[in-house]
Amino acid sequence: MIKAVIFDLAEVYLQGFIGIEEKLKPIVESSEERIDYAVQGRPLILLFKGEITEEDYWKIVKEKGRWEVPVEYFQRAVRDNFIEIEGTRKILKNISKSEYQMGLISDHAKEWIEYCEGKFDYHKLFDEIVYSFQDEVRALKSEKKPFEVMLEKLEIEPQHGLFIDDLKQNVRVAEEVGLQVLQFESVEQLSSDLLVKYEINL
What pLDDT digit, counting tens, does each position of 172-185 carry? Predict the structure, then answer.
C-alpha cells in the first residue's frame, strides 16, 4: 500500500538544467558541444553536493570554456531557464490534498533552489524535502543516501513509498532501495500511470 508519493524536481515539475546550452549560446558565442563540455562534469556534481558555491562553479565553467563573460550573465541565464512544466503542479496539489504524504528529492544547487522556491513557491506542497546539498545528505540520487534520508523523514518502509523521476538511473537506484517507482515521461503519462497502476485518482 502506498503511503507517500515522492517526486523529483527538475524535468518533472520544473524545467531544470536541461536546455541551458540554448540560453548560453548567444552569451558565449560557442557551440552546444563546447558549452555542454564546460557546464557538465565533476564541478556540477560538487555544486549539487554543496561543496562549492554557484559563483565558484561558473568561474570553473568560464575557465573550461575560455570565455571572458561576467559570472552574472551565467547566473541570469540559468534562472531564466527555470520554468514550470505545465500540468505537474495540478497533480502535486491534488495529491497534497489526499491521504498520501508528499516528498521531494532533488539534485540541485543551493542558490538555484533559493531562487526557485521564491519564484514558484512549490515547496509548501511537500511534507518533507531532501536536497542533494543539505548537510545531512551531500549525495546525488545516483546514490542511495537521499532515498534513505527521505524514508527516515517520512517514517515509512520503502515498499510504502512511490518515487517519480524522469531519469532511468535514478529510478533504478530507488528500486534498489526498495521503493516503488514510476519514470516520468509526460504529465499525461504520469496521470494515467498513477490512476491505472496505483489507483491514485487526480
Answer: 999 999 999 999 99
